[in-house]
Amino acid sequence: MTPVKPASRRRSVPPLDPLRFKPSAERPLRAKARWMESQMDIQPHQHDWAQVAFSMVGAVRVQTEGPQRSHSYLVPPSRAVWIPPHTVHTVSAVERADLRALYVHESAVAQLGLVGGPEAWQQCRVLEVTPLLRELLHALATDPETSPQSPLDQARERALCQLVIDELRRARSLHLGLSLPHDKRLRHLCETMIADPARHAGIEGWAAECGASTRTLSRLFRNELGTSFSQWRQQLQLAHALQLAAQKKPMNLIAAELGYASASAFSAMVTRTVGMPPSRFFDRA
Q1: Which has the least CB within 10 A, 10, 36, 79, 257?
Q2: Is residue 167 part of a domain?
Q3: Is 88 exposed, middle or buried (0-12, 13-18, 19+ CB in 10 A)?
Q4: Whole domain around residue 47: which residue ranges?
Q5: pLDDT digit string (tens) for 151-201?
């Protein structure tokens, strides 16, 4: 395989000092806000605590690195990514975005584990952000230098934290996200597809661009990711469709931008893949 054309130049920046927002037993949830311009990447980093990454405005991409498998998640404002402690991750702005990070102390993680078991919170996953959860997250203070002083303010923060924890426990987990290979050549191809999913209509175009046969490319997807090219690409299309739906684009335009001949063909793919029609899948995007 020969390398595909490189993606557009991006700007890489370090994370804001996370220790200033470190959660504790006294303040188990700490919120951080950061505006990100389009094409901005926050450099790979990790924390000693868990994190919920989401965006109030605009879509961001969260990429996590693991010893066995890496993943990429496209996150519109209706979704969030749960990131366990010590997970290396990168956050990229797909468009101008109001990025929010919720840092979660181990005591709060233990409360989350009371529902579904602790194993459910030991791996990355996508969570649905309900309107209530969104407002609760927005209400948490994001100034690292400010802490509640009066008994009433302290009680209010404790109440907000407990409500957030309860909403996170209730949040629907969504089977979204793209596995990424460790093979450097295939990894580069996958990242190029993520950056420009409609660049080619099918596997033939991608195989020709990277100088491989369709059979070779199919075998690499099976061996490296345990899935077919078409299944992986459908997950990619769903992620981008969520972003477009969050921008209030109509279904026929979303279908066209993803290369489908008709909205009905796109609707059939969504229903087949996630087990529900687009009207339900995108209802909160």
Answers
A1: 10
A2: yes
A3: middle
A4: 11-174
A5: 999 999 999 999 999 999 999 888 778 889 888 888 889 988 888 888 888
